[in-house]
Amino acid sequence: MSAQDILQKNIISALEQQDISGLLAITDKTNAATLALHIQKLTIEQQSKILKIIPQSAYVFEFFPLSQQLALSDKMDATQLTELISDMHSDERTDLYKALPLSMQQQVFARLNRDKQDQIRNLITYPEQSAGSIMSSDFVTMSPELTMQQAIEQLRRLAPDRETLYLIYITNAEKKLEGVVSLRQIIQSEPDTTIAEIMSTDLVVGRVDEDQEDTAKVLNHYDFIALPIVDHQDHLLGIVTYDDVMDVLEEEFTEDFLKGSAVESSSNLSLKSAPILSLYRQRVFWLVILVFGSLLSGVGIAHFEEIIAANIVLVFFLPLLVGSGGNAGSQSATLMVRAMATGDVYAKDWFKLLGRESLVALCLGATMAFAVSLLGFFRGDEMVALVLALSMMGIVMMGCLIGMSLPFILNKLGLDPASASAPLVTSICDATGVIIYLFIASKLLLNLT
């Protein structure tokens, strides 16, 4: 039995035996994230009971997904929920508060102290997906006139209520950001040195109304622990920490991943608990659209019925050829969407990339054409081999160029380039592949029949 299994068993045993001291001994020695993982495996009633007992319940509760937090909130009265929410970090508190039913919001808000009410009132005003919606107000500010000794004493007083102490932000009397100093600098400097002497004024900041993904990219690029968020007058409003950025990047990756499979994104998507109707709605739109897109392949086949009837061997290679085009196109689209998402390429790079992708597609097509021509020769004759080789070259090149270009086109139209991946590219490449293959066959084989 692993250590994690033993931990889970001990938690359950302490609960069943109502051994409060034993339960506290276990939870006090366990990392909050690990503890949250194990508590989520218990029943809702057991989870609620543990959260009433352990002193670090708010911190553990923050590691629960929002859906689980809401399920537990339903089991609590307004007083217990208020105590829990009050001890949470400001950004986590606001996220949960916004998701609560209106009646519970009103009860909880009325029981919070004035500072917590002001924090919630300020943070809920920022639009979703903005930097303001993910920032925290649990940061430390100091005056530039303080000495290192005074700064350390102030940090001791503020430590219990702040999310991070590694970076201290320096503001003036108007709350405008003037500089930043690290905890390391404060500890290493002489006690009588002032903050103004050591603080950095070369500031990197995020704007409160900018997209949260842009904020995440800035924080990731500079490898900061936290990024100060200011308004357009440089008033310090909050900070975005690295853990918030990780959540944002995970959401963006999930969204792009789902769109790449023609599934509408949803932050609440759960295959285990989502309603059947919800899962249906997330998938049906693109599937219906792609059904009609696939009809183009049928139209192409119907147009070339004569050549197919005269050379039935062509049908044998049809799935192979059109599938190769779809695969090549999906590869190109995936690479391009990723490059656009990371800022590696922009719309102005399309023409340059077109030439590079054409050369790559030519090499890929030639390699695949050689392989398929051998199959064509043994299955048919030298003319069938030639048709297959030329078709493979054309289909792979067309697939690569479609896959590369479609993200640029969607981006130009104001749509998400991630929608260009997988099923959409494959459907377009299938239709064009059928037409290219049968057109070449008609020109080379029809005169021989």
Short description:
By secondary structure, the chain is mostly helical. It has helices spanning 3-16, 20-28, 32-39, 44-53, 57-61, 66-73, 78-86, 90-99, 102-111, 114-123, 131-134, 148-158, 183-188, 195-198, 212-222, 242-260, 276-303, 305-310, 313-341, 350-379, 382-412, 423-445; strands at 141-142, 167-171, 177-182, 206-207, 226-230, 236-241. The mean pLDDT is 83.
What does this entry look like structurally?
The chain has 22 helices and six strands. The protein is mainly α. The strands form two sheets. A three-stranded mixed beta sheet has the order 1-2-3. Helix 19 packs antiparallel against helix 22. The longest helix has 31 residues. The radius of gyration is 30 Å and the shape is elongated. The termini are far apart. The model has no long low-confidence stretch (mean pLDDT 83).
**Radius of gyration over all CA atoms, rounded:** 30 Å
Q: What is the ordering of alpha helices and beta strands?
A: HHHHHHHHHHHEHEEHHEHEEHHHHHHH
Q: Indicate the structural class.
A: mainly alpha
Distance between the first and last residues' Cα: 73 Å
Share of residues in strands: 5-15%
Describe the biggest sheet? Answer: 3 strands, mixed
Provide the spatial order of strands within the biggest beta sheet.
1-2-3
Keywords:
single chain, 449 residues, mainly alpha, 22 helices, 6% strand
Secondary structure blueprint with pairings:
Blueprint lengths: L2 H14 L3 H9 L3 H8 L4 H10 L3 H5 L4 H8 L4 H9 L3 H10 L2 H10 L2 H10 L7 H4 L6 E2 L5 H11 L8 E5 L5 E6 H6 L6 H4 L7 E2 L4 H11 L3 E5 L5 E6 H19 L15 H28 L1 H6 L2 H29 L8 H30 L2 H31 L10 H23 L4
Parallel strand pairs: 1-2, 4-5
Antiparallel strand pairs: 2-3, 5-6
